[in-house]
Amino acid sequence: VATFILQKILLDDTGLAYICQTYERFSHVAMILGKMVLALSKDPSARLLKHVVRCYLRLSDNPRAKEALRQCLPDQLKDSTFLPVLKDDNTTKRWLSQLIKNLQEPGLADPRTIAMPQ
């Protein structure tokens, strides 16, 4: 429930701006999301993962948050940890692909060459 509420706050432009206004607010949200990813890697839930990925994707719409996420996005979202959970969830796979693409630094890598969960 808390993740869904956070997602609703972030999907609102004012909410996103508020969360990203200070490093402290952003870092608390990023820390909690990171802990959730770690917990999900041990006890997967496709529904909860969908909300977590959507939160990260929305954070990547903010330039300052995007810079920070390049450093703190959990490895489990970048490797094959969640492949079995996402196998039948095309929406979350698409969001995760878009998140990874958003976090690519321009000119450093072609996003099409990055291995993504299928």
TrEMBL record:
Q: Name one GO cellular component term.
A: P-body
A Gene Ontology biological process term: mRNA catabolic process
Per the record, the domain of life is Eukaryota
Do you know which Pfam families this protein is assigned to? Rcd1 (PF04078)
Localization per Swiss-Prot or TrEMBL? Cytoplasm, P-body
Q: Which PANTHER family match?
A: CCR4-NOT TRANSCRIPTION COMPLEX SUBUNIT 9 (PTHR12262)
This protein is called CCR4-NOT transcription complex subunit 9
Q: Which organism is it from?
A: Ciona savignyi
Organism lineage? Eukaryota, Metazoa, Chordata, Tunicata, Ascidiacea
